[in-house]
Amino acid sequence: MSSPVDWQAVYDFWFPASLANADAAAQWQRLEWWMRGGANPDLPRFVSTVQAAKAGQLDHWCETPCGRLSLIIVLDQFPRGLFAGTPDAFSSDPDTLRIAEEGFRNGHYEALTGLWERFFYFLPLAHAEGPDHLERMRRIVAISEQVVDQVPEHLKPIWEFSLKQARDNFDVISRFGRFPHRNPTLGRISTPEEEAYLAKGDFVHQRTLPAVARALGATG
């Protein structure tokens, strides 16, 4: 088996240099790539990196803001592509949340300058189920509202979509205290209300991109 890559290789894979100056169309396309499994064909080469991260062998990446962000991506994003449909897709969530919260306290989050960097940094707050989940979702909604107020006009539709996703996830956690769509994978018994929700199949993480994205070239 190959050795784990360093954090820079993960960072460069997830955030191509061209993203910094990308127009709205390119950013919509990248969002679709991130959220609709575009990375999945390339993820097997990171299996040893994920395993090392799960074992705590890459904790030294947390010495820098971008290293910490890269470890978050390895533990939060990569398992969702590599192990989709199995409990392993979510098994790193508690550790990833801990790593992210440490970075909020020590200034690493604030040190990140890119909006997409910050976006992927705070996703573990949304993904990790637990007793403080609703409060974490409230924090994400507040952060997302600030971003919408600050971004250039031509990028507002992207971040308005992100804000709506955050608000809709807040509603799900408000209703159920967890993500019901995970129940079959994790072997959890669904409540009658969750059964009704699952029957509709309208899951936030599977929502199609808005019409403006499709008009600019993202398939949605």
UniProtKB/TrEMBL annotation:
Signal peptide: none
The organism's place on the tree of life at top rank: Bacteria
SUPFAM superfamilies: TPR-like (SSF48452)
InterPro entries attached to this UniProt entry: DUF924 (IPR010323), TPR-like_helical_dom_sf (IPR011990)
Protein name per Swiss-Prot or TrEMBL: DUF924 domain-containing protein
Organism (species): Microvirga vignae
